[in-house]
Design goal:
Layout: E1 33-37, H1 55-71, H2 81-87, H3 95-105, E2 106-113, E3 120-127, E4 129-133, E5 142-145, E6 152-155, E7 167-173, E8 176-179, H4 183-187, E9 197-201, H5 204-213, E10 215-220, E11 225-233, H6 241-248, H7 258-267, H8 272-277, E12 283-288, H9 296-300, E13 316-318, E14 329-335, E15 342-351, E16 362-368, H10 370-378, E17 380-390
Parallel strand pairs: 3-16, 4-10, 13-15
Antiparallel strand pairs: 1-2, 2-17, 3-17, 4-9, 5-9, 6-7, 7-8, 10-11, 11-12, 13-16, 14-15, 14-17
Length: 400
Amino acid sequence: MRALRAAGITVIVALAGCVPPPAVKPPAGPPRPIFTPTSYDRVPGWDADTQADAWPAFLVGCKALRARELLAATRTQPIWQAPCSAAETIDAYDAIAVRRFFENNFTPYHVTSSEGAERGLVTGYYEPLLHGSRTQSDRYPTPLFAPPDDLLIVELSDLYPELKGKRVRGRLDGRRVVPYWPRADIDAGKAATDGKAIVFVTDPVDAFFLQIQGSGRIALDDGTVIRVGYADQNGQPFRSVARVLIDRGELTIGEASMQGIREWTHDHPEQLRSLLDADPSYVFFREVPPPAPGTLEAAIDGPIGSLGVPLLAGRAIAVDPRAIPLGAPIFLVTTQPLSNAPLARLVMAQDTGGAIRGPIRADFFWGFGDEAGARAGRMRQQGEEWLLWPKGAPLPNSTS
């Protein structure tokens, strides 16, 4: 939902009370996570969490993970078929049974970095509500674009197999492929965006933050509400406008929340355009159809993440998929926004983000609306992660 998306050793089960086996270190090259097997009684906060609250997120994630494995059946070893099949026998309303399911089917691994760090940055995001129209007007001046026709995506692995999964975005300039237009040029009309506006919204700052969040709901002037989600990006690097304002001395680190940035733009309207243009990255959207009534997806009622499933408020995170396997359960131990109050719970790694980089880096999905936005905008905490990986499955990024 945010911007973008084994061969190895045998997993050794670490039983409670036993000395855990030595850490498993993945091959060199960024990002470099280290997964150290442990036991659940050594995971802080595990017994205090209600893992059943994350059960809908796990089940909907299973559907996507099993489908992916079926498509890749000739190339990879199935990892999710066994635990996802076992989940079908669990009573979702039995909190103890759900906890025992994870303990019986998954081994916890403490995630650290190859540089020795045990803690990393945890930020927050949410699904905002904007107001808009299908027709541009003085009230609704700011477009949300679908991907333009001149945006090229080059799969580098087609040229160099060792670059599997790497891609670049650009445009044609004569016979040359050059970087795609940055934000300032797109807003100036240089991109091929004619006819590509999905909807027009009231506020350019709202549109800018929607690009950072990656998805949202639009209340249209005809009374309907639609969802939009991430479709593509211009390939330019993300630059934090919060960092720009901090470096200029306009805001302190403590003031540079989403709310603080909004207040600054309100007080300095003449500098708004130059501030937004300082971030050359630009996100394009698609209109997301509603889920079928009566389905698990409809019950969760969240935006679609990079795994292709709806995100459950308070139980989903965005991760760097080069370090943390997309779809995996993660036990996250951090604190509430601007607080020392603990936040320790089972979440699902079902999303990615352009600014989410590194082995111990998470973006916590708070849900929909203003209250979720207030929490997300203030969240910049330190946290630890435990990867829950299916027992008997090859550990991701392992060496043998």
